[in-house]
Amino acid sequence: MNTILNMGKTGLKAVQRKMDALSDNMANVYTNGYKRKDVSFQELLTNRIHENDVILSDNVDNASINMGTKTVVSINYQQGSFIESPGQFHMAIEGDGFFGVYDEDGNLFLTRNGAFHLNPDGSVVDDDGYYLSIDYEIIPENWGDGDITISKDGYIIQDLEEGSQVLGRVVLYRPAVLESLIPMGEGRYLPNENVD
């Protein structure tokens, strides 16, 4: 009797996880950089049934019973569609890769959310104040005085009266194993050591 109840319980848990993933996907449909969750089901331990166990019909071939189902939730890292944005520092990654952002303690997180802006101290940050990972060549004293643009290749260029100068380049990270990323919420992932 317990076996039958446990099988039913695994089915209910599987359906609940599927509904949780679906509700997360729906709630974040307009969230920049959100990656959809996909859910699949797998059988747990299948046991073959033999004729000496039960009476089987002649029409039954390869009779078996499983111990329930297991839910596998995976994150779909495929590129989503681009939408036009009015933000001067808003970016999108075409193809593979993640932006690197740092919290106030210097911890690195990866994200596909490219909604960045300049904060009052001149740093490029996301809406939560995480600092964008930039490989700076120079940090001028007059940062932000001239027009600052980011090229399609990720170069940060400042246009001044004297001319243009490259300030640095946005760093892109490419994890070797996407499934090793740990979701931390808000579209951020904790990388493992296998990140380029």
What's this entry about, in short?
The protein has 196 residues and is mostly beta strands. The chain is 13% helix and 36% strand.
Task: Give structural notes.
The chain is mainly beta and 196 residues long. Helix content is 13%, strand content 36%. It is built from one helix and 17 strands. The protein has one helix at residues 2-27; strands at 37-43, 46-48, 64-66, 69-75, 89-90, 98-102, 108-111, 115-118, 124-126, 131-132, 134-136, 147-150, 155-160, 163-170, 172-173, 182-185, 188-190. The strands form five sheets. Strands 6, 7, 10, 15, 16 and 17 form a six-stranded antiparallel sheet that branches. The chain is elongated, with a radius of gyration of 25 Å. The N and C termini lie far apart (52 Å). The mean pLDDT is 77.
Q: How is this fold's topology laid out?
A:
Blueprint: H1 2-27, E1 37-43, E2 46-48, E3 64-66, E4 69-75, E5 89-90, E6 98-102, E7 108-111, E8 115-118, E9 124-126, E10 131-132, E11 134-136, E12 147-150, E13 155-160, E14 163-170, E15 172-173, E16 182-185, E17 188-190
Antiparallel strand pairs: 1-4, 2-3, 5-8, 6-7, 6-10, 6-15, 7-17, 8-9, 11-14, 12-13, 13-14, 16-17
What tags apply to this protein structure?
elongated; 196 residues
Tell me the radius of gyration: 25 Å
Low-confidence stretches: none
Q: Identify the overall geometry.
A: elongated
Q: How many DSSP H or I helices?
A: 1
From N to C, what is the helix and strand string?
HEEEEEEEEEEEEEEEEE
Residues in helices, as a percent range: 10-25%
Question: What fraction of the residues are assigned to beta strands by DSSP?
Answer: 35-45%
- How would you classify the helix and strand content by structural class? mainly beta
Cα end-to-end separation: 52 Å
Major sheet: 6 strands, antiparallel
